[in-house]
Amino acid sequence: MQTHENQLTQERVESVQYRTFSLLHVSDLRRRKCGYSTMMFDFLIISAALLGIGYAVLWLTVLKMPRFKRSVKLNGKTVIITGSNTGIGRATALDLAKRGARIILACRDKQRAEMGAGAGIVYMHLDLASLQSVRSFAENFLKTEPRLDILINNAGEISFFSDGLGMIFGVNHIGHFLLTVLLLDRLKACAPSRVVTVSSRGYEIGNIDFECINAHKDLGRGNSALSLLRLYTHSKLCNILFTHELAKRLEGTNVTCYSLHPGAIRTEIGRHANLLWKMVLTPIMALFFRDVESGVQTTLYCALQEGIEHLSGRYFSKCAVQKVRAKARDDATAKKLWEVSERLSGLA
Ligand SMILES: NC(=O)c1ccc[n+]([C@@H]2O[C@H](COP(=O)([O-])OP(=O)(O)OC[C@H]3O[C@@H](n4cnc5c(N)ncnc54)[C@H](OP(=O)(O)O)[C@@H]3O)[C@@H](O)[C@H]2O)c1
């Protein structure tokens, strides 16, 4: 009897011990699990804070765009801006109009351009993809407008459609080349005057293959989105070399010229991209690109800043002159590009 009771007590003790152990084990597991989640939570919070700080630093340094603050007045002056129905061109037109300039919106889409037309802002049809259209525009302008003080070659094409072969080189460089040459006498007659050409920092990965231009009247071949992007960078290198050579040819005329990078700016520039590219570009633009107002500042600087005449032919970014890579200041390439452009645009 005594032995049986002892055995029962022993069993009870063991059972209590077992339950206590189980409970301790479970709570230990829970505590450990809890520890891991707390650590993970802390890690996420710290990572998010570091990312936020990094992003803020990037936004306030690399992506920061200085403002052109001079209150230069332009009463009695006339400015042509290509591609001014949207994006950087439109914002430039609105700013210069507020300063009193007569603005010529040189655009290919009358309806879109006329949204911005008003007192002192006039639409004139210009399709830079057609040499005939460039000639008609210049003829019409020279016949109807007595002055030209600032020419802003702003329009830019980065069509992602395969039938756009030759288009990027044609619009971004050849069209602007012909337009500028046809208007040079009027610019000289109204000197001091300026030619401002909107290029891109993308020029750094561009190059010019003259054999390809001779064979295909284009800067390269291919119709994938990436190859078209490459053509865009080549055309932006052309903008800088064109300005480099133009400055030499304008020496002593009091007409000066500048090329520039406007910054990474949220505009409609990727509107022809396919869905995949749009899905990639949209978040990048939202996070890392500045607003259109920021994109206008360097154009305003090049068009209006006093005392930069000795920097004619140079490339600007963030409202300051910048040193360009050797390929963008090579005299021989710039001269050759000028001669090829004369031939392709029917001037020689
Ligand atoms: N946004 C950026 O981050 C960035 C960076 C570096 C350089 N850029 C340069 O900045 C300039 C302005 O670009 P954006 O960003 O303001 O682009 P956007 O919003 O796409 O504006 C481009 C303008 O060019 C016009 N255009 C295109 N093809 C034309 C043609 N054949 N004839 C006449 N006009 C034509 C467009 O007219 P439609 O509306 O009729 O198409 C539009 O008005 C471009 O030269 C671009 O290369 C921009």
From TrEMBL:
Transmembrane regions: 43-63
Taxonomy, superkingdom: Eukaryota
Pfam families, per the entry: adh_short
Record's keyword terms, sorted: Membrane, Oxidoreductase, Transmembrane, Transmembrane helix
Stored InterPro entries: NAD(P)-bd_dom_sf (IPR036291), SDR_fam (IPR002347)
SUPFAM superfamilies assigned: NAD(P)-binding Rossmann-fold domains
Gene3D superfamilies reported for this sequence: NAD(P)-binding Rossmann-like Domain
GO molecular function, one term: oxidoreductase activity
UniProt record similarity statement: Belongs to the short-chain dehydrogenases/reductases (SDR) family.
Protein name: Dehydrogenase/reductase (SDR family) member 13a, tandem duplicate 1
Species assigned in the record: Electrophorus electricus (Electric eel)
